[in-house]
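Subject: Predicted fold for Tetratricopeptide repeat protein 37, 1109 residues

User T.R. writes:
Posting the sequence so we have a shared reference for the thread.
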Amino acid sequence: MAASKEVKSLLKSARSALDREDYPEAIKQCQAIFWHDDTHYLAHVLCGKAHLLLKEVGEARHQYRIAITSNEKEILAWKGLADLYDKYSPEDKDEKLEAIKTYSHILNTVTGDGEKEFNLYCKLAPLYVDVGQLEKAAGAYLYLLVSPSASGSITEKSLLFLLRHPQYSQTQWQLIEGSYKSFLSSLTETKRIEIQTLFISSCMEWIKLVEDEEVIDSLLKTVQEECEMLESKENQETLLQLEIWKCLKVLSIQPLTEEDLIAITLLLDKRGEEEEEEREGVWLISHCLVLLQSRKIKEACTLASKGTVSLPDSCEGWFVSCVCHMKAHDYEVVINNARKGLEALGSLPYFIRRQVSHSFHILLIEAQLLEGNHKQEALTSCEKLYSESCDCHVIRLYVKALIANGMIHEAEGIINDKASLLNEEKGILNELKGHLFVARGDFDQAHDKFQLAINECPQFSEYHYWAGYTNWYNGNRTKSYPSLVKAGQLDSYNPAVFNMLGHYQRHVANDINRAVKCYKKAFTIHPGLTEAGISLGECLSALGEEESAYEVYLKITEKSPPTEAREAWLRIGLYHRRHSQYDEAIKCYLKVLHQNVSDSNVWECLGEAYLSRGSNIAAMKAFEKATELNPQSIFSQYQVAAIQQLIGLLSEAVASYTRVLELQDDYVPALKGRAESYYKLSLLAINNVLDSKAVSYVSLALIDLSKAVKLKPSFISLWKLIGDSCLSLYSIAETVARVSVPSELLGNDEGLEIIGKKALLELGLKSYKCSLHLCDGKSPYLLHNLALNYYHLAEVEDDKDVSKEYLEISLKLIKNAITLSPRGHTHWNALGVIAMHSILKDYALAQHSFISSLKIEPNNAVVWSNLGALYLINDNVKLAHLSFERSQSCDPMYSQGWIGDGLVAEIFGKSEETRNFLENVSELQYHDESALGYAYWVCKTLTEGAPSHSLKAHQSLVQARDGILKYVRRYPKDSLALNLLGLLYEHEGMMKQAKESISLSLSHMKEEGGSGYLPLVMHNHARLLSVTGSHSEALSCYESLVAMEAPDVRLGQALALFRARKFSEAAKMYQLLVDDCDPDSKSQLLLALSMCSFAVEDNESCKNLLFKV
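User M.O. replies:
I've generated the structure tokens; pasting them so everyone works from the same file.
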């Protein structure tokens, strides 16, 4: 109780101090109260007032806040805080928000008191603006605008704000409009123009928000009146904007008429032609609308594009641009602009927004369908639009989208369901039925439907186009022309029409120049129309304008999506290939394959490009892929075979050619290719001394070539290949060269005949003569081959006179070849070889020929070797050696140079060098003479008892044996070679093979008769019979040798007797040998004799003989 009295006393003292203006004392009294009650409301209010009067604003605000916190319902602290903000304006946002809260709280307590409300709204309105609460600011200014207490400045300020920030209802707008009209007359001209301009701008914004047509009409009228009063460029633009909105409302439903554009035309004329260059924004859009109505489509499109650049956020510009480009059939631009327009749809007034949005979607979907690459997206959009709005145009697009996506049954269902609705629009029902029949391939019925559509709506270009299109594809191509011409007259910007007209001029009228004009117009209008571009390029190529065609194809690749540009890339690849730019061609073909990896034709093109570039393996793989995709493709399989032949896979090539011939047995290139592969296989077989295989291959080649020349007897290459095949076997033995030849080639009936080497060479003569006859004897290479054929025929001819005649003909032919091709070094070489034949022996001509050849080609190892052989024949050993050395330096792998030097070394008696030369040859490649010579030298070295290391141990034996084995394979009746082979087998320990070889050698030698080597071979045979356990045969052979008085027989006979366990007879034979031997061999014979004594258990004699050793 005492404390309460003290607080009251302190409050009284504080008030008294305030009345005395002793503000510090008042603060002191309040603080004393706070000792008793620190939340005392009145004490904080008084303390705050004292601080405020002392201009201590921060402390005053703090005290008021404490008081409000302790009791928000009391008004004193709020009023105190309001007084503070009245005297000291709030600075930052937090203070302004606090001031707004303070004034708003007080405003709630003075409702009904007009003067106080007016004053508080005057304070609140600018604060709302400062903190960004524009909606509340608009409410405050709207109150001030209609308040009877408002002065002129307050009204002006309120009106300016409201016009600059149009956020209001229709009722509020009426208040603003009324205040504006009553207040306008009291303003100065400058201020009047400012507010009037703001009013027009606010009207335009308000128009965008209103949907009521009466209100909109009233607003439009108001704006028009205000703009006519001001007469400024800006107001003209406003009027244009109004007219554009009106036109868009019409244009979204139907085409514009001249009446729709009267106001725009007047405004454009008023602006004047002198400012035409400076037009932008709404001026461009307005002018564009005028051009569009006048059917000046290209100029309209140009201005529309400029308008969208000038006003990128203006939906009006994007919509007009879409309409213009749709008229120009520039579908890609329509798609892009429609999407941008839909994004900017918010800039349009409500009263046209829905219609324009609907039209945007219609344009977008139609462009997507006509462009052809957005069919699924168009269908999705159509489904959504169909569910929202089901008018005829939406149904029409929906059905087209379903047909474009292959949903024929669904499209038919919708047509049937909506038939009554579709009948309301002329032509649409018949049009859609026509498209349905086109999708099913029934062009006759489709044409009838489009004709009905034309009867209902004759001015619609698209119906005439489809009538012409269906006539074209139902076979009435001539009748399609009038329809297409009519379509072009009604719509001169439809690329599809001019594309079809191009087809007519190209395929029916056969006028490529007119076709080019039609295709060019179609492609210029719509660069994405790939079909027109491809056709244009093909026509230009037909006219010889290849570079122009190439430029067209490049444009297609730039404008069309990859799936449609593949044909252009294919033709660009063909262009590059024709110009030998193979890398570029390959890149193009790979781009085509990236779109469709299953196109066998493109794989073939890729293979050809790789082949032309020299990438044979890559080419083969490409053709193999083409064959995999199209197993019936003869070309692909043939190319695989040809490449396999080219890279040396001859067996695989034969198999591939065979597969081609299984598809078409009379395909001459495959017959020739397989025959050529057989011919090359025969050459390889000859090089590997597989002569029997070579004969088989030549026989197979001749069979194929016989079929080929029967089909194409005028092909020079076929006759030449027959000659080459016959000539290829010249080096093999007569006994092996037994070839099966088709009887037709020999001039007989059908069947096969086996002929020998001579007959084969005669067939070669006949074939070469046929090929020469076909080329009028002007081919030096055919003359060369014919000359060689005569040369080899002379070698197998038994009659020397005939051989000489052949050689003379050969000489004449090769001279003719030189006359035709004097720089042909091979011809000169052949002339030298023929001239130095043992029958002609024209060594001077041979030398001249070889030297002439070397003048043309100085690094030819073959010619140097031949020249060395010529010198060697004429005993000019030094020059021969120099020539052979030069041959070796030109081509170290050419064996003849080494063989020649080996012969030179043999002449000088340098056996070791001879053997080394022959060894080099055996390491390089097989050669008949070197194989025989090397085997001889190895055997000789062995019989002389040389140490094994002198023969490089086993390696020399193997090399010699392999070489002589090949020689024997080629010459199976050469008894001396067989003997050498047997000796080499024997030294390798291969006794069975050795015995067989020596047996053959002995057999052939006996057949030949009179050979001085017979005892030697018999001796070798007897020894091997003994070694292999054939003792009786061996002893019989030795007895025959004894009868022939052959030398050095008894030692072998004694050894054979010992091996046959005839020890007593062997001992007698050894005893005879001991008596007649030289001292060096006596110990060995005594040792053998002791072994015989030991074998018969005569130990005493054995001991005595061993002591003698």
